[in-house]
Amino acid sequence: MALEFIFPVAAAVLALTVFVVGDRVRPESWRQTGDEASGTLVLDLIKTFFTAVVAFVVVICWQQYQNAHNHTVAESKALVDTYLAAQGLPEADRQQVQGLLRAYTDQVVSGEWAVMDAEGKLSPATQDTFDTLRASVTAVSSSDTATSDTRAAALAGLDQVAQARHDRAVDAGRGVPGFLYLALFFGTLLLLFSPVLSGLRVTKRSVAMTALLGVVVGAAVLAIHNLDRPFSGGNVVPRDAYEYAQTRFEQIGGRSAHSAPATAIGAGDVPHR
To answer: I want to staple 200 with a disulfide (CB 3.0 to 4.6 A). Which of 10, 112, 195, 265 is the partner?
Structure first.
């Protein structure tokens, strides 16, 4: 943390040294009678610094938001794939595994989002449900090749869910680095003090422009605050991927129920015309 203070101070000392020494060796014709040029240079530097920091922070926040959203989509897809794979398990195992898949998805939507918002981490209760789900698939007996293949496909889907869940856990605790917040705070103060540093007189026009400057700066800082963490704040990653997975679970279950024949037709039970 000391480097964040040492380097700016060292740069300030170097700039002063170059300025004082350079003033002694430069030609007399290069000297200006007033300090307006230096004030303009400093103000332009302040505006450039603030704009660069805001742009850099916004890009980082947006990239984190997009990564977090992509991880939720990947997890929901893997949940649907696992649910489809479980259709080939024996009846008792299928009901247990698909029931746990629905329970896990419901907990993610209803409870885990609030935990990520408040604490910046995943819910231990939802993790327990997922661990139980994986243990249930692992415990499925594989007495025939079809069941073994189905079990392997379900486990492969759960591996993808686990990977996406791990990525989501990292996303929930990730935010803008502290040094960038320090740079943003420093640039904001300099920009707000720029009317004073420029020697601007207090008039109706200058008061209105200064107030407008404050509104723009405040809006930029608020936007960064809302984008800081993808699962908390004012711009939270939506749960639509999991809600769509819940819809797919219902569709798969309903299709399976309608496709099952009520009675089997034997070889000699050909209906007469």
So the answer is: 195
**Domain contains 13:** no
Residues in the chain: 273
Q: Are 109 and 246 in contact (CB under 8 A)?
A: yes
CA distance 54 to 57: 5
Instruction: State the average pLDDT over residues 218-223.
Output: 84
Average pLDDT over residues 106-111: 92
53-69 pLDDT per residue, tens: 888 888 888 898 999 99
Question: What global pTM score does this model have?
Answer: 0.73
**pLDDT per residue over 121-152, tens digit each?**
999 999 999 999 999 999 988 778 888 899 99
Q: Which domain does 83 fall in, by range?
A: 39-249
**CA separation for the pair 233, 227 (Å, rounded):** 7
User: Token match 């170059």: residue?
Assistant: 18
Q: Is residue 261 part of a domain?
A: no
- The reply to whether 25 falls in a domain is no
Instruction: Determine, yes or no, domain membership for 121.
Output: yes
